[in-house]
Amino acid sequence: MAPSSPSLPNLASLSLSTPLEKFFQPWEANHGFERHQNKTPIEEFERLVEHMKWIEGSKGYRKRYKEFIDAAPAIVPPNREDHVSECKGPTVVPPPPNPPGDGTHRLNHFATFISKGFTPDPTAPLASEFTRLAKSQGWRPNSKRYRKERALCFATEFEAHYGNKSERLEGWQSLCQEVDIDPIPLSITKCKKELKALSINIVDLIDCRRTGQYPVLRHKSKRALRAYSKSTGKIFSLRKVKENGFLTVLLIDMY
After folding, report:
1. Paired residues of 92 in beta bridges
2. Taking Cα atoms as reference points, which of 11, 94, 87 lies closest to residue 48?
3. For residue 254, with 0-12 CB atoms within 10 Å meaning exposed, 13-18 middle and 19 or more buried, which class applies?
4. pLDDT by residue (tens digit) across 7-19?
5. DSSP 104-140
6. d(CA 150, CA 137)
7. What is the C-alpha to C-alpha distance for residues 58 and 173, in angstroms, rounded to an integer?
8. pLDDT confidence bin for 107, thresholds 50/70/90
C-alpha cells in the first residue's frame, strides 16, 4: 500500500460532482462502503479494496484501479499509475488471508497429519499434495481409506479458503469476484446464476488460492469441463459438494 501524503486533499474538500466522488458513490450506495471524509483519495481507495476483497492483480482489481486513477489523475502519484500496466494477464498474487464466505480461516486437512510425520506445503497444487500425503500415510490408491480421505481433504480445503456460510450475500459476491465476474451481482440469486453459467473446475479454483496463480481456468462448455476433469482426475466427491452451498453451484454432471 502506498503511504499517504500530507499534500493530498481529503474527500471532504472535493465537490460531489467531481469524477472522484462519482467513482466512490456506487460502492457506497450498493455495497455498504462507508467513506471517511478525513482520508485522502488514495487511502480511501485502499479501504475500498479491503472492503470489497479485491485481489491485487486480478481482472476486477485492475479495472477498478484504472477507473480510480482516471478519476483522479492529478492526485494519484505517477508510480502508482505504473502498477496498472504491470498487472496484465495471469499473475502470481498472495492469497487473501480469510475465506470470502465467513472470514474465519480453518485448519486444513493436511495439517492434521503433521503429528504423523507429514509436512504440508500450502503452496503446492491440491491434487499433488494429496498424492504426497497418501504416500506418506501408506494409503493405497483407490482403496476405501484413500477415497474417504481424499473426499474429506478436498472438501475441507475448499472450506478453509472459501468458507461455508452460503446464506450470506458477501460470500457469494466474493466468490464472483474471485472468478472475475463483473459487475458483481447484488443478490444471492443473481450470484448463483452467474456462477452456474461458468465452466470452471473446483480443484483449479482451490489451486488459485494455494498457488497464487490467477485467473482460474475457464472452459468453453460444460462438456469441455467434464472431459478436462476426467482426464486430470480433478473430481470432487458428490456428497461433499452437496454439503457446501458454494460448491453446489459449480457442480456439473460428470457422466
Report:
1. 213
2. 11
3. exposed
4. 444 544 444 467 7
5. -----GGGGGGGGT----TTS-HHHHHHHHHHHHTPP
6. 12
7. 15
8. low
**Residue 195 in contact with residue 214, Cβ under 8 Å?**
no
Residue keyed to cell 498474487: 93
Q: How far is CA 32 from CA 26, 43, 63, 88, 211, in A?
A: 9, 17, 20, 29, 31
* Rounded CA Rg of the chain: 21
Provide the pLDDT for residue 5: 42
Nearest to 162 by CA among 211, 220, 205, 133: 205
Residue type, 104: T
Residue 200 is given by DSSP the state: B
State yes or no: pLDDT of 69 exceeds 80.
no
pLDDT tens, residue by residue, 45-65: 888 888 887 766 566 677 777
Give the range among 66-75, 79-88, 144-153, 221-230 with minimum mean pLDDT. Answer: 79-88
